[in-house]
UniProtKB/TrEMBL annotation, chains A, B:
The keyword Transferase applies. This is Phosphate acyltransferase. One of its GO terms (molecular function) is phosphate:acyl-[acyl carrier protein] acyltransferase activity. GO terms for cellular component: cytoplasm. It comes from Vibrio marinisediminis.
Length: 341, 341
């Protein structure tokens, strides 16, 4: 079994080492092929490790660094001063080949700027995109991108997102992924210039299985395998969906928490249902990938708990095994040849 | 009691007279001050009326017209050929003062184009916006606009949406409405140029109570009374939320409808739960208003059922009573004075 090394930004996210260190320890016991390099403040990391009765060994190492990029830091500033930050160093380890992938729960804009600068983009890609899987009623997954790596996009970028998303989904499916564009209506006349131009480009590209537009209320119905949108829309759409799902789960929980006999029955009746509903919350999958780079970078939720960070590390392992960047690169080359660029 | 006349596009929506006619009859019995003019194919309307044991009288009249605007018709074409359609005639009745408001479940783009052409915009408004109320966990409402009247907007339009939304919400609240802009993060550095420019304008406008940015997952938490966004984002956000809510309600229904003993107990004890969850589905409020016009135009969901169309008629009555267009006009004047346009 080949080892896979993940560089984990120990300081990123709302909780820093209190979550990332236990997650690293758990991930090491889950994934026998895994090695983790924790990057951040050595004292905080060591304290957390000790409290878990763990210490550095052949599979777990620490690289100390002082600086942390805050959530309010502008990407441009992070790019100037952030290369010695825990996030910057984690990306660096990928770029010099000391790690196979990097995971961070830090500032998305900074992660994108630093990754782009250090790892470089794949040929034919102008902007990376953040992709994640949404659950569907049928139990399948729908990959959606861009979820906020960019605050605005042109049709060429949206087209590239479609190609990249399709290449990623293809690694999980036995058929050409169905690719749709998120829009405000299913009819051809609907939408803004951006989606119309991208739809035209995709319609003329045989190597992408473009099926047309999809609306927000169809996202979970397994109509498409890949849904493409600009980062502003994608981020708001995903968060709205997570917020709505959480609202319903919370409401049901209120019933179950009642100290009455009814509450007791509700707990007995609905505990399985709550778990089932949770699987429909897009929030369940932690670990969005930053696609389009010559390296694997996984963005974890800022508010991720230990289990969620373990999932993000698992996603990194998957992508390393499936060699996602080179799959995307192959696919891009085929599309670019077809389009006679 | 003063009569209020509503012109109802009987042909609009997925079901046409099969839904609009029973809705008109129900609304007449709900609202004693209401008069309805049904516009559309006289034969279909009369057939529906007869089957309900109802006929035209002093409160219910029919205006025949042949043409219906389809959902796939471009707004530009609807504008050229649609003035003799059921939708166009309904709007006309408002513009000539024969009706106080119009309600249609037809093509949104056509409704907007025809309304704008026939009713004209309020002074200081460049584009109308579609506004509707979302439910919140606390039982209050949050008004959101634009929900898709426009597929793209500039900062000036977004600013005008904020002023209009605030003027509408003010009619329902005892305090200055809290106005927020929908964005991908709460920090000042987040977002695209559009939201940043609009935020700057609102920060410098004392007569609007601007509280900053709001994220998709906070929409239902009563953080804001008015949420402003461009029509593309708003439409997708609303539909995503409705889709997610429906998914959860369906899941719970399946559980409660099960023929098992568990299903039976769930039905006996928790029949109120589904209704409570339904009140959290943004879909519950039917009847979005087209704000910014010199007249009242209410857009009903295309898929609205009888009850939902009755709600849309009720919304029209509310707005007539509260004289919404002139309230917005007053508010705009105050803001424009303040901004020294």
């Amino acid at each position: 079994m080949q080892n896979i090394t993940v560089a984990l930004d120990a300081m990123g996210g709302d909780f820093g080492p209190r979550v990332t260190v236990p997650a690293a320890v758990q991930a090491l016991s889950h994934f026998p092929e895994l090695k983790v390099i924790l990057i951040g403040d050595r004292t905080s990391i060591t304290t957390q490790l000790s409290s878990l009765g763990y210490q550095v060994d052949a599979r777990l190492s620490i690289k100390h660094c002082d600086r942390v990029i805050s959530n309010s830091e502008k990407p441009s500033l992070a790019l100037r001063n952030g290369q010695n930050s825990s996030m910057g160093r984690a990306i660096d380890l990928v770029s010099v080949g000391q790690a196979d992938a990097c995971v961070s729960a830090g500032n998305t804009g900074a992660l994108m700027a630093l990754s782009r600068f250090r790892l470089k983009l794949l040929p034919g890609i102008e902007r990376p995109a953040l992709i994640s899987a949404l659950p569907t009623v049928s139990g399948n997954r729908t990959w959606m991108l861009d979820l906020g790596a960019n605050v605005s996009s042109d049709a060429d970028s949206l087209f590239q997102f479609a190609v990249m998303g399709s290449a990623l989904a293809e690694q999980y499916l036995d058929r050409p992924p169905r690719v749709a564009i998120l829009n405000i209506g299913a009819e051809e006349i609907k939408g803004n210039d951006l989606v119309k131009r991208c739809a035209e480009m995709l319609s003329n590209t045989e190597s992408v299985n473009f099926i047309g537009y999809i609306e927000g209320n169809q996202l979970f119905h397994d109509y498409a395998d890949v849904v493409v949108c600009d980062g502003f829309v994608g981020n708001i759409c995903l968060k709205t969906s997570e917020g709505t799902a959480q609202l319903f789960i919370d409401k049901l929980k209120t019933y179950m928490m009642a100290s009455s006999i009814k509450g007791w029955i509700a707990r007995k009746l609905f505990s399985g249902l709550i778990n089932e509903l949770k699987t429909l919350n897009p929030d369940q999958y932690n670990g969005a990938s930053l696609l389009g780079l010559r390296g694997i970078v996984i963005k974890s939720h800022g508010s991720a708990d230990v289990e969620a960070v373990v999932n993000a590390i698992g996603e990194a392992l998957h992508e390393v095994k499936r060699q996602v960047p080179s799959r995307i690169s192959d696919r891009l080359e085929a599309v670019l040849l077809e389009r006679h660029y």
